[in-house]
Amino acid sequence: MSTAADTTTDIRTFRIDIADEQIDDLRRRIAATRWPSKELVEDRSQGVQLATTKELARYWTEDYDFGRVAARLNALPQFTTEIDGVEIHFIHVRSKHEDALPLIMTHGWPGSVMELLDTVGPLTDPTAHGGEAEDAFHLVLPSMPGYGFSNEPTDLGWNVGRVAQAWAELMGRLGYTRYVAQGGDVGAAVTDVMGRQAPEGLLGIHVNVLVRVLGVPLATESDEERAAQAQLDTFRASGSGYFLEMATRPQTIGYALLDSPVALAAWMLDHDTESYHKIAGAFVDGKPTGNLTRDNILDNITLYWLTGTGASAARSYWEDYSPQAPNLNGQALAAVAASGQAPPEVSVPVGFTTFPGEVWAAPRSWVEQSYPSLTYFNKADRGGHFAAWEEPQLLSEDVRATFRSLR
Fold it and tell me: In whole angstroms, what is the distance from residue 175 CA to residue 195 CA?
């Protein structure tokens, strides 16, 4: 059984209070948007479409409840603590089930802790969501440095490896001596590195995107492997614009992200094609996919705007990109790759879920190549890149299955 200290001098309770002036300023800035002309194509090949952005802006100012972000976060126990010079914001929900297993989950970009909120119920209270009491977790949801209500780093070096070390410190500070970790998108990179660092107490990891694929020879013998390779090639050719800009010039795009809420929204929507179509459908057609509703999408964008973290979040990509190893693996491991040495293996058990709408839907053979310690693999029948956001119940079920044998 794991326990956590109720109070420490290093951990402080946190509550969000959004001033009316901030909301008024946001509304004014949306209203003052200088709109570009309509794209000259009928698809998204020139970027986020004008109809999508205009409907998002209309809904944001006319129908969206600006109190949602504070209400949703303040409904959960929130805390801050300083780790390695950065004030880290995190949600910490202890399960009512005594023998719950501690779990730290890491969000990605353009997500935040908002994308994880609908997993809180299924993971901490499984008996109310189709699970068993023995599947319960004590849940820790930190905001990445420079994201949301975590402070911006003021020095260089906050790559995913340093974040992984901070998360191990956080779990120890909470009194957890045995725990597991999960992540998607950039959170998958953090979780991957945690598995390679193997801090004391980490029992296993689960990820839902394969981060070590770019620049690595991969098998293309089966139809499934060739399809995944084609997805990777498409990402390189036409889907990685946001990635390259933030990885090489985050300060440049940061001016737009901090000055215009519509620019921020458009930048955050311009991720992968499948996710974009789902989000556009939610706004233009009024047909959400799973939990990718208009309100949930705007909760996340609004959080970025109110915290002014568009530029600092973009800088995290600069920290984690290297021409020698362009796969979100952190500068420390990039240096290892540049030296010709292989990165350390993940020594703990690994669970992996491939969602059909992933940017590249990794086949099991690729996952086994990256994770020889793979103990759980599942091909989900629905869902995409933002799995915790879109299909929180499905992802929660896979997280339970991954760690069931480690309790």
Answer: 20
Nearest to 159 by CA among 389, 354, 325, 374: 325
Choosing from 89, 92, 107, 385, the catalytic residue is 385
CB 398 within 8 A of CB 353: yes
Is the pLDDT confidence value at 393 over 70? yes
SS3 label, residue 292:
strand
Task: Give the full edge-to-edge strand order of the sheet including 374-379.
Answer: 12-13, 78-83, 86-93, 137-142, 101-106, 179-183, 202-207, 350-354, 374-379
Q: Residue 405 contacts by C-beta under 8 Å, 6 or more apart in sequence? A: 349, 375
User: How far apart are the C-alpha atoms of 18 and 40, rounded to whole Å?
Assistant: 39
309 contact partners, CB below 8 Å, separation of at least 6:
146, 147, 148, 152
* Tokens 């010079």 -> residue: 85
How do residues 64-108 score in pLDDT, each as one tens digit?
999 999 999 999 999 999 999 999 999 999 999 989 999 999 999
Question: Cα 185 from chain centroid?
Answer: 5
- Active-site residue, 317 included: yes
The one catalytic residue in 135, 185, 320, 398 is 185
Are 151 and 87 in contact by the 8 Å Cβ rule? The answer is yes
Q: What is the DSSP letter of 246?
A: H
pLDDT digit string (tens) for 14-50?
999 999 999 999 999 999 999 999 999 999 999 999 9
What is the separation of C-alpha 36 from the centre of its chain, rounded to a whole number of angstroms?
Answer: 30
Q: Which of 64, 147, 276, 317 is catalytic?
A: 317
Whether 185 sits among the annotated catalytic residues: the reply is: yes
3-state secondary structure of 215: coil
Long-range (24+ apart) CB contacts under 8 A made by 246-250 are 246/109, 246/314, 246/315, 246/316, 246/317, 246/318, 247/317, 247/318, 247/320, 247/321, 247/326, 248/318, 248/321, 250/311, 250/314, 250/315, 250/317, 250/318
State how far Cα 395 lies from the chain centre. Answer: 13
Angle (nearest 5°) at CA 148 between 45 and 88 = 135
C-alpha distances (whole Å) from 254 to each of 56, 79, 148, 264, 318 are 21, 27, 15, 9, 12
Identify the bridge partners of residue 287 per DSSP, sorted by sequence position: none
Can 259 be counted among the known catalytic residues? no
